[in-house]
Specification:
This protein is α+β, with helices and mostly antiparallel strands. Helices cover 26% and strands 20% of the residues. The chain has a five-stranded antiparallel sheet with strand order 1-2-3-5-4, with helices on one face. A hairpin with a 3-residue loop joins strand 1 (14-18) and strand 2 (22-26). The longest helix is centred in the middle third of the chain and has 22 residues, at 53-74. The protein starts with 5 loop residues before the first helix and ends with a helix.
Amino acid sequence: MKKTCSLCAGDGGVVILRTSSWRVVLAEDEPLHPCLVRVIAQKHLAEMTDLAPAERSECMALVFRMEETLRRILSPAKVNLASLGNMTPHLHWHIVPRQSDDPHFPGSIWAPPLRQTGVLSRPPGFEMALRQALENL
């Protein structure tokens, strides 16, 4: 039986921007990291080198714009950029703002938590700020 790709079957989060090649989403499946953003290829492919050079540049422009925006809005201790695809082999980038007191810091967000935290939420106007950051790209 063929396994369905979850990023082909669904958006992967709240869509902030959708183009013919890319979508930028606010993750809903990372409750300990509510400000995690993903840049996801619209077509199913696994690796950056599956893209034409212009598509690679477009992808990284979105990733970098989101990193800049998260830094401006949240003033994180660090921003992690990751394109793993081991669990979901569909090209996507994670842009993860990190705070020094987040449950996993300084480890990976996919490692066991190092500390307990209270309820984590997005700051007011967060989604709108992401949308505005992408308007002029």
